[in-house]
Design a protein that fits this description.
Blueprint lengths: L2 E9 L2 E6 L8 E4 L12 E4 L5 E4 L5 E5 L5 E6 L3 E6 L9 H11 L3 E6 L21 E4 L1 E2 L3 E2 L3 H4 L4 E5 L6 H8 L25 E4 L5 E4 L13 H5 L25 H7 L5 H18 L3
Parallel strand pairs: 8-9, 8-13, 9-10, 13-15
Antiparallel strand pairs: 1-2, 1-4, 2-3, 4-5, 6-7, 11-12, 14-15
Length: about 290
């Protein structure tokens, strides 16, 4: 009879997993068969007596990002929380936070913002200046020579939580602080570019001391969405659905007359930063659809 395991990492045709009910057990190696498919970190699987994945159990969601060609690339499965890490240095692009928010909400994942390196002055500029207008939990942390995680560990005691953010914001340092018995390689900022060196090479699931799971992912300087219908992108902006129906059912909320979203953005019922992000992501979708 096959057993149920939680996948920690998947590389090529093999990976590591632990028994679903014993997260502190020593990992075992799994093999993937073509007919079964390749699981993701966070998946629950059944394995047979030969150490091969016999079944990937149904997922609650699949979190991923867009490839250079605008295709969806899965990263992890069954997430509860997306921990969006930003920092005063390196300065994030204006759209980065809103891209992550859209991706999380499209997959029914709860987004949380972490401002790391809180010992540094926080710029009075987007995306930091946007946070007060957004309905988000925000945590301030410091994971350098001084460790201060505030109330973050209590938030992570249950479920699966993925650390996301560009290289250099301190994701590996945060993971090291949250997982005292684990040492993830950390790297400083590149002196020539001001951007972070990639220090994590594969998505990996780790058991947290309080009972939850932490997903550590490779850093990316720019997080991109994938090509999708406008209706799917709109699922990443739930505030649009709270302002009443537009005049046209297929409204793109950019120029149509009688658009409830445009009216709500104009009178402040929708934060201006969210509507600006919508317009930029809408233009990006047009470029992806055109193959650019």
């Amino acid at each position: 009879m096959s057993e149920t395991y939680r996948v920690l990492t998947a590389l090529g045709n093999h990976g590591l997993a632990v028994p679903d009910d014993t997260p502190d057990a020593a990992p075992v190696e799994l093999h993937f068969r073509r007919r079964t498919g390749r699981p993701l970190a966070g998946d629950r699987v059944r394995i047979d007596d030969q150490g091969a994945v016999a079944e990937i159990l149904p997922r609650s969601n699949t979190f991923g990002r867009g490839s250079d060609r605008g295709r969806f690339q899965p990263i992890a499965a069954n997430l509860d929380t997306l921990l969006i890490v930003i920092a005063p240095r390196p300065a994030p692009s204006e759209d980065l936070l809103h891209r992550y928010l859209a991706a999380a909400r499209m997959q029914d994942v709860d987004p949380v913002v972490i401002i790391n390196k809180s010992d540094l002055p926080v710029p009075d500029a987007p995306p930091f200046s946007d946070l007060d207008a957004l309905d988000l939990d925000v945590y301030r942390t410091c994971a350098g020579e001084t460790i201060d995680l505030g109330q973050l560990p209590e938030r992570l005691n249950r479920g699966i939580h993925l650390l996301a953010g560009q290289s250099g914001v301190g994701k590996s340092s945060l993971a090291n602080a949250l997982l005292p018995t684990l040492r993830i390689d950390t790297g400083g900022l590149s002196r020539s570019t001001g951007k972070g060196r990639h220090t994590t090479t594969a998505t990996r699931l780790h058991a947290l001391p309080g009972g939850g799971w932490l997903v550590d992912t490779p850093g990316v300087w720019e997080y991109g969405l994938w090509s999708m219908p406008v209706e799917e992108l709109e699922r990443g902006f739930p505030e649009f659905h709270r302002v009443g129906p537009c005049r046209f059912r297929n409204c793109r909320h950019d120029h149509e007359p009688g658009c409830a979203v445009r009216d709500a953005a104009a009178d402040g019922r929708i934060p201006a930063c969210r509507y600006r992000a919508w317009l930029r992501l809408l233009n990006e979708q047009a470029r992806l659809a055109a193959g650019g």
